[in-house]
């Protein structure tokens, strides 16, 4: 099995109450685990101002996850994030193997093939 490591960042809409941010995070985590991903770390950066206006908003709550999975990408998770009204932006990208190993996320796992 080929192990891949991804980093997922979302920006939660500033209209979402602080008490509901955890619910949004849990929903996203559920999407990832339903697709076979394992959450290696969660980093809630909190509410931050945008460099420029996005969808008529000037701030949002940033959350970053490191995800270890054997699937190529997380297509259903990305689809659900695109459709979610409470997510302003999201970005999922694959970490280079060197960086994933440096962060201790790959260990002795077999390296993934390009493509």
Distance between the amino and carboxyl termini: 15 Å
Q: For the residues shown, what is the average pLDDT?
A: 89
Q: Compute the gyration radius: what is it?
A: 15 Å
Query: Poorly predicted ranges (pLDDT <50, ≥5 residues)?
Result: none
User: What fold name goes in the CATH topology slot?
Assistant: Alpha-Beta Plaits
Provide a count of the helices.
3
Report the CATH C-level class.
Answer: Alpha Beta
Helix content: 25-40%
Q: What order do the SSEs take from the amino end to the carboxyl end, as H and E?
A: EHEEHEH
Strand content: 35-45%
Number of domains: 1
Largest sheet: spatial strand order:
2-3-1-4
In oligomeric terms, what are we looking at? single chain
CATH superfamily: Ribosomal protein S6/Translation elongation factor EF1B
Kindly list the characteristics that best describe this protein.
115 residues, alpha+beta, Alpha-Beta Plaits, four-stranded antiparallel sheet
């Amino acid at each position: 099995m080929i192990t891949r490591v991804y980093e997922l960042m979302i920006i939660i809409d500033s209209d979402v109450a602080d008490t509901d941010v955890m619910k949004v995070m849990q929903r996203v985590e559920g999407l990832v685990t339903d697709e076979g991903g394992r959450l290696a770390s969660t980093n809630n950066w909190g509410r931050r101002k945008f460099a420029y206006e996005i969808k008529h908003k000037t701030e949002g709550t940033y959350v970053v996850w490191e995800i270890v999975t054997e699937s190529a990408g997380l297509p259903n998770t990305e689809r659900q994030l695109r459709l979610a009204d409470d997510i302003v932006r999201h970005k999922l990208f694959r970490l280079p193997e060197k960086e994933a190993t440096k962060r201790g996320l790959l260990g002795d796992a077999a390296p993934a093939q390009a493509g």
